Amino acid sequence: MNEEIAKILKMVEESKLTADEAQELIESLKDKNAQLVESTAANSNEDIMEKMLRIKVNSHEGDNVNVKLPVKFIKIMLKTVGKIPISDSVEGMENIDLNLISEAIDNGLSGKIVDVKSADGDIVEVSIE
């Protein structure tokens, strides 16, 4: 956008545009840029909402969890209930930070967001795929 503004200012300097015309063009560029930013953010949000949240827990005591839930469902559950409908009694699940998951979703993060391997042999993985 800076190049375009520089060209507009150059045209004013060369008397090809008036100051008012230049101002209108610059405002038009800013509006176009703002619309582009909004459109990109909306597309990013739509893309993340089509993904799946995967939670995998393997505890040394034999408890195993392997869950895939749509991100859209997770967002609704976190807004209404404040938690994901997975049993907290499974070892390793009590340490999953739902606020972190929600922030990752809001920021459009994909891939592994939690990867913990404890000294006892517990493995907890949370990813957005």
TrEMBL record:
Q: Does the keyword Coiled coil apply?
A: yes
Judging by the UniProt lineage, the source's domain of life is Bacteria
| Protein name from the UniProt record | YvlB/LiaX N-terminal domain-containing protein
Annotated InterPro entries: YvlB/LiaX_N
Tell me which stretches of the chain form a coiled coil: 12-39
All residue ranges annotated as the YvlB/LiaX N-terminal domain in the record: 3-32
Q: Which Pfam families match?
A: SHOCT-like_DUF2089-C
Write down the species: Clostridium aromativorans
**Keyword annotations for this protein?**
Coiled coil
